[in-house]
């Protein structure tokens, strides 16, 4: 009977047991991450309801995490990022730097240094969210596994966020609470004059830790991070399309070689030939330069064709797609297999006036896995041809009842890029960042306005914004917040922290080290914000007991609360890349443990030198 146990003891051990079981489940990939996290939270809630023991402050706290401002902000940021991705805004902003990347190390240097810098002045979560689609495309182009890029991306954003008060919401929470402690101390007649935290106060420890951390990430990821590849790679698709693309007359590709344009690096795709505007046909050599109105004949699988259409400066030949009486934001890519009863059998695509008859533009044609000769408009349609079409989203509903096509299906990630709206999407993102950075609006309000702005300006549609939300990430974060509240309420986190503090035995440096380690343990078990709020009063009390300035203890809490490198759910950006990168828990431990030690030693060393 549970009532026979000490009500002060068993809730703590139950919470610790549930948390350890969750960690074990994540380590062994026993089930989906969101299911594991939600199950762990459900166990705590059910036990509380059955026994009446307050494992959580009150029943509503179990699900309060799902209404957390940070979680809602992340959901809104998915919509903002969808607008950037569908317009090519992120590539426009980063392409000049990342397009010249040649290998893993070069890519990481070009990516991680700007991300760490920006994360010091922006909230690091939207920085990672905006970079996710760019990193995915970059990995495909350079044939680098996403697992070699995504976790370093998250870690670089965390490191950069340590350096200022603006870099992470945790630092802002600590600053507000610490300033309140100072006011309370003065009101109680405190004799010691205490300084408030300034914008760059965390930099004394954050900058050295960031520099050393980035050196470790760039130097060690090749050996410490395994390649996690999807079960089916792009090259496994046997269906080979012949596709034509035209170089925009005054676009960004004019004057570049095929290599510089990135057209030789797309997996599963090759350029067969180049048809010049004067009628000449030239071989597709890597050093062949592109000119306005060149027609490129390419052969590749459907995923590669989708990636090809993301490249700025390439348009459909003859501008057929733009002649459709449908705005770009209402179009998508559709695969359709030609039936023997199709009215256009034996006619070329041009003769059959495909666009006029079906209100759809033929983007590519596949026939038996071989390349089709001649221009796309001159291809004669045969039964069994697979056509890749740019059409309205209602095309499938109209044609499924007809006799012209069968096996009609939408293409994954087949939304049409709206490159002309890329500057607008970047402008919305910039306004959001500036409004939040200058405290004109809260991060939540700024993200909300930006998400609405993306939809109203048709950078993305409502359904596209809704589909962009990764619900599994939100479920894991919301559940982790609830579990964190249980760790705090049951006394489990406090017991762990106090046990570490007892080891210090009144020594200032020992106390600083204990505070740091205790905060790191808590932030890995719960969340960074919960860990900071739990450890701040302990740090304040510990500083007064050993008779030292509380500033180094408070900075240690700020740095350690963000220094979550060992688990996928201790920090939001770690959770965001967990599923996308195909990581396992051991990847975080293997790659993150040395980084945790480096950051800890650098931070404690600098704080000891400056304050103790």
Automatic annotation (TrEMBL):
Keyword Transmembrane helix: yes
Alphabetized UniProt keyword annotations: Membrane, Repeat, Transmembrane, Transmembrane helix, Transport
Membrane-protein topology: Multi-pass membrane protein
Location (main, coarse): membrane
Domain RCK C-terminal: 229-314, 321-405
GO molecular function: monoatomic cation transmembrane transporter activity
Subcellular location field: Membrane
Keyword Repeat: yes
Transmembrane annotation, as ranges: 12-28, 35-51, 71-98, 199-219, 423-456, 550-571, 591-609
One GO CC term, this protein: plasma membrane
InterPro entries: Cit_transptr-like_dom, DASS-Related_Transporters, RCK_C, RCK_C_sf
Name this polypeptide is given: SLC13 family permease
One Pfam family named in its UniProt record: CitMHS
GO aspect biological process, one term: potassium ion transport
């Amino acid at each position: 009977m549970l009532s026979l146990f000490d009500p002060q003891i068993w809730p703590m051990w139950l919470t610790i047991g549930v948390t350890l079981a969750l960690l074990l489940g994540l380590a062994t990939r026993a089930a989906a991450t969101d299911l594991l996290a939600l199950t762990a939270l459900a166990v705590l809630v059910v036990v509380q309801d059955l026994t009446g023991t307050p494992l959580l402050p009150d029943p509503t706290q179990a699900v309060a995490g799902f209404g957390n401002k940070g979680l809602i902000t992340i959901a809104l940021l998915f919509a903002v990022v969808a607008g950037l991705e569908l317009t090519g805004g992120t590539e426009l902003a980063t392409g000049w730097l990342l397009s010249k990347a040649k290998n893993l190390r070069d890519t990481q240097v070009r990516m991680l240094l700007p991300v760490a810098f920006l994360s010091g002045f922006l909230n690091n979560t939207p920085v990672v969210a905006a970079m996710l689609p760019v990193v995915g495309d970059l990995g495909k182009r350079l044939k680098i596994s996403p697992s070699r890029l995504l976790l370093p991306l998250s870690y670089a954003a965390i490191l950069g966020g340590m350096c200022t008060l603006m870099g992470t919401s945790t630092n802002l929470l600590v600053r507000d609470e610490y300033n309140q402690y100072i006011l309370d101390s003065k009101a109680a007649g405190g004799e010691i004059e205490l300084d408030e935290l300034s914008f760059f106060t965390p930099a004394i420890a954050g900058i050295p830790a960031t520099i050393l951390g980035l050196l470790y990430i760039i130097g060690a990821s090749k050996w410490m991070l395994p390649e996690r590849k999807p079960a089916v790679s792009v090259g496994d698709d046997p269906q080979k399309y012949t596709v034509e693309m035209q170089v925009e007359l005054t676009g960004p590709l004019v004057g570049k070689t095929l290599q510089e344009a990135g057209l030789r690096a797309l997996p599963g795709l090759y350029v067969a030939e180049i048809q010049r505007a004067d009628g000449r046909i030239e071989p597709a050599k890597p050093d062949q330069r592109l000119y306005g109105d060149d027609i490129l004949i390419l052969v590749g699988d459907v995923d590669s064709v989708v990636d090809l259409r993301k490249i700025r400066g390439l348009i459909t030949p003859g501008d057929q797609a733009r002649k459709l009486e449908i705005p770009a934001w209402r179009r998508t890519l559709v695969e359709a297999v030609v039936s023997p009863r199709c009215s256009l059998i034996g006619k070329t695509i041009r003769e059959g006036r495909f666009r006029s008859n079906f209100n759809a533009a033929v983007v590519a044609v596949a026939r038996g896995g071989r390349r089709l000769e001649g221009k796309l408009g001159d291809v004669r349609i045969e039964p069994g041809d697979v056509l890749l079409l740019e059409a309205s989203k209602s095309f499938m509903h109209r044609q499924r009842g007809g006799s012209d096509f069968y096996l009609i299906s939408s293409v994954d990630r087949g939304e049409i890029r709206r490159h002309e709206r890329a500057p607008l999407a970047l402008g919305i993102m910039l306004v959001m960042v500036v409004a939040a950075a200058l405290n004109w609006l809260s991060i939540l309000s700024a993200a909300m306005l930006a998400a609405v702005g993306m939809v109203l300006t048709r950078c993305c549609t409502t359904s596209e914004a809704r589909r962009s939300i990764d619900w599994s990430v939100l479920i894991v974060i919301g559940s982790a917040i609830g579990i964190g509240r249980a760790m705090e309420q049951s006394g489990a986190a406090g017991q762990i922290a106090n046990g570490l503090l007892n080891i210090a035995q009144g020594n200032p440096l020992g106390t600083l080290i204990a505070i740091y380690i205790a905060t790191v343990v808590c932030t890995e078990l719960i969340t960074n914000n919960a860990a900071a709020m739990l450890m701040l009063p302990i740090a304040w009390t510990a500083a007064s007991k050993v008779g030292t300035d509380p500033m180094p203890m408070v900075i240690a809490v700020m740095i350690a609360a963000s220094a979550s490198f060992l688990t996928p759910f201790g920090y939001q950006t770690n959770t965001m890349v967990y599923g996308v990168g195909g990581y396992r828990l051991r990847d975080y431990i293997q790659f993150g443990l040395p980084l945790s030690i480096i950051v800890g030693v650098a931070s404690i060393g600098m704080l000891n030198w400056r304050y103790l």
